[in-house]
Amino acid sequence: MRRAGLGEGGSGQYVASGYSVYEEENQHLQEGLRAKVNALKSLSIDIGTEVKYQNKMLDDMDSDFDSTGGLLGATIGRVKQLSRGSQTKLLCYLLLFCFFVFFVLYWFIKLR
């Protein structure tokens, strides 16, 4: 039984051809590994781009919520000011109307 580089009196050409098979196989495996590394690199770049985009969207949402919170705070302040006055009956009607509108909108959206 002969193997590359192990036989007695083996020719140098036989040994070199055995190594060239290994070299070709290594080259083939190297190319496959290079392709996988490039795919992972492009995937990680795409993930980084998506993360930056999502962070920008979250920052925009945070500023929108802050502005909405300020608007709601001012509105609640006005409602409290109304409740301190003698217009409590009007305030009750206003709150009942708001609940009615929200209920109708909820019902309308639910039926869709």
TrEMBL record:
It comes from the Eukaryota. It is a single-pass type IV membrane protein; Single-pass membrane protein. Residues 20-82 form the T-SNARE coiled-coil homology domain. PROSITE patterns: T_SNARE (PS50192). Keywords: Coiled coil, Endoplasmic reticulum, ER-Golgi transport, Golgi apparatus, Membrane, Phosphoprotein, Protein transport, Transmembrane, Transmembrane helix, Transport. One of its GO terms (cellular component) is Golgi apparatus. The chain crosses the membrane at residues 90-109. The keyword Phosphoprotein applies. InterPro entries: BET1_SNARE (IPR039899), T_SNARE_dom (IPR000727). GO terms for biological process: protein transport; vesicle-mediated transport. The keyword Repeat does not apply. Required for vesicular transport from the ER to the Golgi complex. Functions as a SNARE involved in the docking process of ER-derived vesicles with the cis-Golgi membrane. Interacts with SNARE complex members GOSR2, SEC22B and STX5. Interacts with LMAN1/ERGIC53. Interacts with STX17. This is BET1 homolog. It comes from Austrofundulus limnaeus (Annual killifish). The gene is bet1.
